[in-house]
Amino acid sequence: MIEQVHIDALTCILGDKGVVKRAEDRQAYETGARYDHGQALVVLRPATTAETSATIAYCVRHGIALIPQSGNTGLVSGSTPDASGTEAILSLDRLAKAFELDLDNRSVRVDAGLRLSDLNRRLEEHGLFFPIDLGADPRIGGMIATNTGGSRFLKYGDVRRNVLGMTVVLADDDGTVLDLQCDLRKNNTGVDWKQLFVGTSGAFGVVTECVLNLERLPQQTATALLVPASGAHVMPLLRAMEERLGAYLSAFEGMSGNAVTAAFAHVPSLKNPFQGGHVPDYVILAEISRTWAPREGEQSLDAVLETVLAEVWEMETAPLADALVGPPHEIWALRHALSEGVKHLGKLIAFDVSFRRGDIMAFCDHMKAEMPEKFPGVTVCDFGHIGDGGVHFNLVVAKDSPLLGDPTFEPRLREWVFAVAVETYHGSFSAEHAIGRRNQAYYDLYTNDKLKDMAAGLKTLTSPGKLGSVRFGPARAE
Questions:
Q1: Distance (Å, rounded) from C-alpha 199 to C-alpha 335?
Q2: Which H or E element spans position 111?
Q3: Burial grade of 257 (CB within 10 A; 0-12, 13-18, 19 or more)
């Protein structure tokens, strides 16, 4: 329990709305998007950078550990406290007022607590958007802290590529405010300091304001569901599409038959476009787009896509077994329903891994072949961003399976999957979900000791206070 003197002091800084004191009001902040739940010492909700600075400084001086929380949509236990009741949550949900659009620079300056959906809703009337496409609706600060990717990474890149500047509050005795609010796309005058705070889970400092690169909102799109001749034909198919479509290609999403079947079973509004309702073993969602309105005499994107698919169909290597061109909203509805469908199958054990593009299908095929022998009763329901090498390798166990009664089962399964991904296929154990407590052990295992020492040194240099759920070195910096 936090001492009343601290509650009084923090209330003086933040006001009554800025301190969530009652246990029942803290529950939404203590519960994560998937399976994590902790107990918060208190929830602190600054509304400005100045309040954030004063709050962090007070907590550092009095040894109060802080867990920064943005939209709380993360999946690796990075935004919720542990069960000890000794960590305070620093929520960004009141930091959402600033919105300064620069049309000439094609950028926007916003508070870090703004929701992605709210940002894009306000940009839509100007024909612009922040080009990170996600199934969740995070706040911008959390997207920066985790370096989110998304379904259109292939064309637009990740958050790191689309952040121009930021304001960061460090966890030191002064709550030092770093003004890194650069609006420039080209600035080669030394260390690009903002990148130190992108993808490091909020442990080096709390982003309170940011300047974002914007892109033109697509005015034309065409989509298709592609059935590759086999797993080995997925990469030749992608290369053929990239060769013929260039920058038009905006998404190339892989979906296993198990995941698609689960989506159809649990989301009744979806339309099954496959002949006889038979779902193929593997399906790819391909999207092409243009940022301008249709011009008279210009070939439609549907026609462009059909022409390219006809060319691919005639290739000697025959990478394509079938193709269904359809309405974008229906095809994307299937992709976005995969998570919902899979989680209804049973106990979900999820992995977010990445590889060189040429190794993705080899990894998936390897795991599907080995799984029945290594862990019978586990169903593979993978899907992911084939165009950028990311895979949501989801495993499902029936809720009545005896496996769930074995306390060693899930740790053994996780260790095996990560060992194959990292040691055999030289991939990453976290493609775009960052670290968090759930991935801490694998960071410790697979990160070079020198790099851990360097990261711990940077943590001590920037934010020596107790900030964030991630331990970057052998021991948490005090």
A1: 25
A2: strand 107-111
A3: middle
User: Distance between the two ends of the chain, CA-based, in angstroms?
Assistant: 21
**How far is residue 463's CA from residue 273's CA, in Å, rounded to a whole number?**
53
SS3 at position 229? coil
| pLDDT for res 134 | 87
Residue 284 is predicted with a pLDDT of: 98
Using CA atoms, how far apart are residues 149 and 216, in angstroms rounded to an integer?
A: 18
Residue among 147, 131, 142, 25 at smallest CA distance from 74: 142
Positions of E strands within 214-281: 215-216, 220-228, 249-256
74: which DSSP letter?
-
56 or 433: whose pLDDT is higher?
Answer: 56
What type of residue sits at position 59? C
pLDDT of 474: 62
Closest CA to 147 of 414, 348, 354, 382: 354
Compute the C-alpha angle 196/198/203, nearest 5°: 75
Q: At what angle do helices 234-245 and 301-313 cross, to 10 degrees?
A: 130
**Could you tell me if 234 and 361 are in contact, meaning their C-beta atoms sit under 8 angstroms apart?**
yes
Residue 132 one-letter amino acid: I
What CA–CA distance (Å, rounded) separates 213 from 433? 21
Q: Per the structure block, which two tokens stand in for 60?
A: 């550092």
Alpha-carbon 145 to chain mean position: 10
Strands (E) in 297-429, as ranges, are 320-326, 347-354, 378-380, 383-384, 390-397
205: region left, alpha or beta (phi > 0 left; psi from -120 to 50 alpha)? left
User: Residue 212 corresponds to which tokens in the numbers above?
Assistant: 């974002």
Task: Give the pTM.
Answer: 0.93
How do residues 32-91 score in pLDDT, each as one tens digit?
A: 887 788 999 999 999 999 999 999 999 999 999 999 999 998 888 889 999 999 999 999
Q: Answer left, alpha or beta for residue 414, where phi above 0 means left and psi between -120 and 50 means alpha.
A: alpha
Cβ within 8 Å of residue 358, ≥6 positions away: 235
